């Protein structure tokens, strides 16, 4: 160490002397078999290569104190001083015995777990606690080893030699114990985050200037293995690594396997630990004991630079352009070696430690301490491989269930909550709508009840009106035949009152007329009864001209008015499909109204004209025009002609016109009125004529 340069010089000269064997002897021994465990292997292999080749132009930059360059001149010098070497070596070996202070320097890496590499020396400051540093047993070889020795020395100066100690530990979080500082991989720091660890500094070098992206892993195999060319070919093969808990030597490789959607626990068929010695992994590959080796990034490049022949090694699944120094890597890069403080370290000592680390001079390969700002990649790695703080994911626990399925659980929870809210809202809306429907139904029932009561009242009124109307119709229609019967009876009676014997034919004619009017009265009563029963009238083919003549003759014979009704009917025959009794009643009603209208008019005239016309639908219709020269109707009286009256008053125009209008509309016709100038009124009864097609069908 830097604290004992004499011992380090002695060690280097011993190594130098031990390997001045002939090249033939060196070639006859296994690689690395002559080198002690106290020296990093890649340095030993460089010396071995120098003596094996008898010529080596190589600078030992990795040695803290020595920089020896071999060439032809140095070899000549070596042969010249060869006789003096035994005495020189002997003096170096016995020098410690005459030293005043025994050396307490730790052994060179790699260290043994539990080894005390720095013990408290000198006076102890009782006011200050002893700061304890743990150093992970890193895999050999590694160019970062010098930074360990320099860090221990700078901490001794910072905290005092009597208040500082350093010990090698396994790298497991459970073995940290009462340590204050830990120098380990970024993986160990990542596993300690849950225990309150806080990073202070991270290694930087010329090979890895970015402390966030420095360490990676490389999958290698023998070049002769044609069956292993790509990543998938490694599945099911035997692998060798520095150890199952190594970060760069194993965990980073597992993270790459997981990132490619493989199960990292079942990807390789077997794992052969190399005991933290990556050079032994090459021996396992070459001997056939392993198919795949996992080494750290830059390991092959360092061996090649040291003169090691690695031409038989083939890298697998290399990611181009990953490493800033051009080293091969099969994985992404992670933070470098890190010193972190445990919760036991005081804030004052944490500040002193950080200042000491960041102010430490650079060593070989620009080794120094920097600040890493992103350890999230380490956390993601351990989550993917389910190790470290995510070890619980390897077995089903509530915590694992929550971590893996919390998104779905929350989604399910909010879905159920949403459904519950929707159900509650729907239930509320259903109740609200049900109440509205009940109210609407109640209002509808009340409306129906009111409508039923009103309908019953209207039906009662209608029945009363119907009874009154029927009574009026009977009184209205029976008046004419009864008047005729009375007239004929009075005439016969006057004949019988005289002494003159009446001719038999005259008596027979009077009796026949009385009988005819009685039968007509009976028909009227029967027709009214059929109306009351709702029976449809019997319609037949009827000669409208004959019905008009019969109605005029009946009125003229009854002598209900001194005015004689005139008729004008064409020679053509007009047939309609109707009930003859109804048509005759309608014509007589209109004629009787006209006779009543001219009752008080001098030279009163009533005429009936039968004609025809074509409607808008090109169908021919019969037109019965009944005109009088009675008083001129004013607007109010003319409008009342279209009103339906239910009065029982026989005089006037309401009841008879309602009957006529009903008969006409039932036949598809209509009743119209027109005022005559200068006075009088014309009633137009328009009825559809029977077509030839319908006439032939009835025939």
TrEMBL record:
Its EC number is 2.7.13.3. It catalyses: ATP + protein L-histidine = ADP + protein N-phospho-L-histidine. CDD domains: HisKA (cd00082). The keyword Heme does not apply. It holds the Pfam family HisKA. It comes from Sutterella seckii. Residues 473-691 form the Histidine kinase domain. This is histidine kinase.
